[in-house]
Amino acid sequence: MANYTFPNHFLWGGAIAANQAEGAYLEDGKGLxxxxxxxxxxxxxxxxKGNVPSxxxxxxxxxxxxxxxxxxxxxxEDIALFAEMGFKALRVxxxxxxxxxxxxxxxxxxxxxxFYDDLFDELIKNDIQPVVTLAHxxxxxxxxxxxxxxxxxxxxxxFETYAKTVFTRYKEKxxxxxxxxxxxxxxxxxFLGAGLVFEEGANKKQIQYQAAHHxxxxxxxxxxxxxxxxxxxxxxxxxxxxxxxxxxxxxxDVYQAMERDRExxxxxxxxxxxAYPAYAKRFFKDxxxxxxxxxxxxxxxxxxxxxxxxxxxxxxxxxxxxxxxxKNMTSGNVFGSVSNPYLKxxxxxxxxxxxxxxxxxxxxxxxxxxxxxVVENGLGAVDEVTPEGEVNxxxxxxxxxxxxxxxxxxxxxxxxxxxxxxxxxxDIVSASxxxxxxxxxxIYVDRDNEGKGSLKRMKKKSFNxxxxxxxxxxxxxxx
Length: 479
What we know:
Order of helices and strands: EHHHEHHEHHEHHEEHHHEEHHEHEEEH
Enzyme class: hydrolase
Protein name: 6-phospho-beta-glucosidase
GO molecular function, one term: 6-phospho-beta-glucosidase activity
Helix content: 25-40%
Number of domains: 1
Strand content: 5-15%
Keywords: Glycosidase, Hydrolase
EC number: 3.2.1.86
């Protein structure tokens, strides 16, 4: 890294999500949303897959999103810490149900709009650009009850109304937008990704891909609205990225790795290129899926493609066609990866693969030839506070350092990258597990898995490390 620096105006920063940080889950008129129904514990993953026992919070369950880290009331304090680190950007999401509590209200909720006005003003005051996701695992529960969520075309137009509302309100404050967070998660955790609830005997694949089509059309209409309302803004899509390696050079493994990658690229192919790829059409045919489309959909998708590709990268994945190899699956990986013998794993079973970051960035840029924005990357780990009140998170520093090096190498490869907002710059609720124990931040939050703690903020060792990274524009990666 000593021989070059990152581009001028590179957007260093961090990323959080409304439902994992804000809390205040019913305050100031906010409606219930999907993540408000996800408890901690073993039930959480089953619910995220669409097996939902209730569309109201149940007595006796702990729902970590209800208070989270109380960013709703503490954002000024937290932004001051981000500014101290030198953040150029903070990626946040707007909670749809703060703006339209039922998702179909006749007028938006002014208290919700004002909260984000105040949040964006505070960021701008500290020279931090807001990078805003419209839908980060966030569907108003009323739309699930009434329409079955994204399986229903109605949500396309409700989402368009929501998008136009916030574009109009914040057009002078926000210049970087994204439509759906990790849109490909709809196929893996469909309730989390799209609010889908499955009845017994339902054709899940048919429902998922119909919902996917509706999200893709809604995304294109949001792009159209953004370009019309905020001509000087950029709006992107976002996927949970991480290339699949074949476990061996057996052509069957290689082909399967290509197919697994296509599960995710399918969404971005449509959002970036403006049409369904041929392999997707064959997939629909082979699986007897009939995707209902309106006559205007092809033109909508074709004419309103995204300006950049946002992506998260935590780990690579590995796939095999060998039944014996498949028995050795990594724990915690949503994408069903087999264990890669060349890579170490995090405490939650995610492979640690910095080189895979460079590979993934190159593959995305080769495929789309549009700017990339790394909007999530980080290490979830258990952090201990010493008797002296310190948090020495050397493993996190090592993880981030090695990934930033590979990001720099990707830029030297010719990959255009707008910025890097590492995931969870302050400890927040884990989306996958609902835990606070799984920490990502440079800032420790005193809260445990049961919701106990003072919520006091404390700088970790990585705080000053990342501050120096930003100050040097990526040249100084020492501790």
